[in-house]
Structures are given as structure tokens and as C-alpha cells.
């Protein structure tokens, strides 16, 4: 049931958060020499004006499909890893989350490569012009045909640098918050508490590894049409800092944090409600459990 809950929770999160992600990528990747957007809200308005509201949903295909598996992997691996580690401690929360973050990167990296390319395609164009990629799947097929497995995994190292600590923090912070807020079964404020805990967790998690996300976006957007600006991660960091200063690592951060709260609040609350329904249907009222796998956003009905 964790699988189903994770899938539905992930889909809810993608629908709520994708526009913010598109704005983030546009701001992260746009040229500093001739910027199209002055900031987060100007970017939102410009995309809607020039590309309609659907411009905000460019590239949603791959995360909507990919997150079905990603959330299932994340919640499944984290819960099983924690059980393997034996004790539900903050350190084990981090370790289990980091393991989940590393494993889900196998799907996340190609998925975000396609998403990033689709989000950057047709930037600022008022009228649809012939596109390099028809859709996210066509994007990955073309990259694979041109550059093979290496091409499809472009940005993998920066994805791992972002996701392994990022997901470690994700599950550690969520566990600490839900415990300190007293998310106990039968608490009538449990859902608002879980929404709050999930939202804050998303913000803290993204802040923890955001510089890696900026570099990952630039590397994954690089090479469209076969023209490469960066030769390596170090070259991308060097060029970015030399041209824009260390502030480059905050590009798109506002949109990311605006996205992180509702997406992760929606994901955790949806997972909770799906599991609550499932347990309510399958197993009826349950005692409050203590293991982390059951400390996840679940609601056991009072017996
Ligand atoms: N820095 C991270 N990768 N944090 C994990 C957050 C994952 C969550 N699915 C989101 O997209 O917000």
C-alpha cells in the first residue's frame, strides 16, 4: 500500500508544483548577458503571457510518469532500510533516507534531463516554432540515439550530490518535526500538522543541497542542439562563479521554496490519507505503532 500511496502522493505533488519548477529552471539556466526574466514573479507572468498557462506545464510528462516509481522507491526503500538498520534513531533516519535518495537517482536523473530540456524548449517564443523534441519520451530517445547511455545519464553525479544528502535531510527533518509536533493517532489536528511538517521538510531539504541543483540544471540544459558550453562539473562551477559570483547558487531559489512547501505538504498529506483509507478498509482500527515504517504519515484509528 506504501507503493500506491507514494504514487498518488507523488502525482498530487507534481501537479501542484510543476509551474514553480519550470520557473526555477528558466531562472537557473537563462543567460546573464541577456536575461529574459527579472525575477520569480516576472518569470511567471512572462511565461503565461508569451506561452500561456500551459507554458508552465512544459515537461510535466516525465515527472508525472517518473514520480510514480520515484515515490514508490523513496518510501519503500527508506522504510525497508530503516527496518534493516534495526533502530529508529535520527542517524538511521538520515542513512535510510540517503539510501533512498541514491537509489531513486537512477530514475530521477534521466527523468529530470528530459524535463529540463522540455522546459527550456520554446523559451519566450510567442508562437510555437518547430521543436527539437516532440515530448519527454522523444527527448530521451533522441539523446540516447545521439549519445547513448552516457548521454541519458548526463547530470548523474550532481543528481547524486543533491539527492543523497537531500533525502537524508528530508526524512530526518520530517521525523523530528512529526515527533515534536506530537502527530499522534486520533489527534484532530493531525492532518494540518502533517501538512506543515511536510511543507517545512521540503523547504529544509531543498535548501540543504540547492547549489548542486543549480549546477545539475545547467549541465542538463547544456548541449541542446549539440552545442556544449561546459566540459565538466568543475568547469560549470568555475564559469558560473566567474561570470555571476557566488549568488549564482541562489538562482531560482525563491520559486523552488514556493514550490517545496505545497508539493511536499501535498505529498505527505496524500500519502497519509491514502494509507488511512487503506488501513481503515483493510485492517480496521490499529494500535499506534512505534516503528518508523509506521511512523510515516499514517493515521491509526483509536480502538
Ligand atoms: N533536495 C531534495 N531532493 N529533496 C527531496 C524532495 C523531494 C520531493 N519529491 C520534491 O520534489 O520536493
TrEMBL record:
Q: What's any GO biological process attached to this entry? A: mitochondrial L-ornithine transmembrane transport
Q: How does it sit in the membrane?
A: Multi-pass membrane protein
Main subcellular localization, coarse class?
Answer: mitochondrion
Q: Which InterPro entries match?
A: MCP, MCP_dom_sf, MCP_transmembrane, Mitochondrial_Carrier
Residues forming coiled coils: none
Q: Which GO terms describe its molecular function?
A: high-affinity L-arginine transmembrane transporter activity
Assigned protein family:
Belongs to the mitochondrial carrier (TC 2.A.29) family.
Upper classification of the source organism reads: Eukaryota, Metazoa, Chordata, Craniata, Vertebrata
Question: Which gene specifies this protein's sequence?
Answer: vrtn
Q: Which transformation does this protein catalyse, written as a reaction?
A: L-lysine(out) + L-arginine(in) = L-lysine(in) + L-arginine(out); L-lysine(in) = L-lysine(out); L-homoarginine(in) + L-arginine(out) = L-homoarginine(out) + L-arginine(in); L-arginine(in) = L-arginine(out)
Cite the Pfam families for this sequence.
Mito_carr
Note the segments forming the Solcar repeats: 1-84, 88-180, 187-277
* Protein location: Mitochondrion inner membrane
One of the record's GO cellular component terms: mitochondrial inner membrane
- Protein name as catalogued: Mitochondrial basic amino acids transporter
Which keywords label this protein?
Answer: Amino-acid transport, Membrane, Mitochondrion, Mitochondrion inner membrane, Repeat, Transmembrane, Transmembrane helix, Transport
Amino acid at each position: 500500500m506504501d507503493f500506491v500511496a507514494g504514487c498518488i502522493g507523488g502525482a498530487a505533488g507534481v501537479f501542484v508544483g510543476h509551474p514553480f519548477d519550470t520557473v526555477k529552471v528558466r531562472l537557473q539556466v537563462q543567460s546573464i548577458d541577456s536575461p529574459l526574466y527579472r525575477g520569480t514573479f516576472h518569470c511567471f507572468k512572462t511565461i503565461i503571457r508569451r506561452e500561456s498557462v500551459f507554458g508552465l506545464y512544459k515537461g510535466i510528462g516525465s515527472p508525472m510518469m517518473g514520480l510514480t516509481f520515484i515515490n514508490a522507491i523513496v518510501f519503500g526503500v527508506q522504510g525497508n532500510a530503516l527496518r534493516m538498520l534495526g533502530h529508529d534513531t535520527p542517524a538511521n533516519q538520515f542513512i535510510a533516507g540517503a539510501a533512498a535518495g541514491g537509489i531513486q537517482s537512477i530514475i530521477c536523473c534521466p527523468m529530470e534531463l528530459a524535463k529540463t530540456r522540455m522546459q527550456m524548449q520554446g523559451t519566450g517564443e510567442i508562437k510555437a516554432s518547430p521543436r527539437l523534441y516532440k515530448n519527454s519520451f522523444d527527448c530521451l530517445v533522441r539523446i540516447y540515439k545521439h549519445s547513448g547511455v552516457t548521454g541519458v545519464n548526463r547530470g548523474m553525479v550532481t543528481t547524486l550530490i543533491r539527492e543523497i544528502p537531500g533525502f537524508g535531510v528530508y526524512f530526518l527533518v520530517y521525523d523530528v518535526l512529526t515527533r515534536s509536533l506530537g502527530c499522534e493517532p486520533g489527534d484532530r489536528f493531525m492532518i494540518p500538522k502533517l501538512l506543515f511538517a511536510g511543507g517545512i521538510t521540503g523547504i529544509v531539504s531543498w535548501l540543504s543541497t540547492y547549489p548542486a541543483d543549480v549546477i545539475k540544471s545547467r549541465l542538463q540544459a547544456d548541449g541542446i542542439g549539440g552545442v556544449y558550453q561546459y566540459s565538466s562539473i568543475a568547469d560549470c562551477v568555475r564559469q558560473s562563479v566567474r561570470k555571476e559570483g557566488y549568488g549564482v547558487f541562489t538562482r531560482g531559489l525563491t520559486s523552488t521554496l514556493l514550490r517545496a512547501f505545497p508539493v511536499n505538504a501535498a505529498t505527505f498529506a496524500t500519502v497519509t490519507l491514502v494509507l488511512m483509507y487503506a488501513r481503515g478498509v483493510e485492517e480496521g482500527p490499529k494500535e499506534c505503532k512505534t516503528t518508523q515504517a509506521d511512523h510515516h504519515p499514517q493515521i491509526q484509528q483509536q480502538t
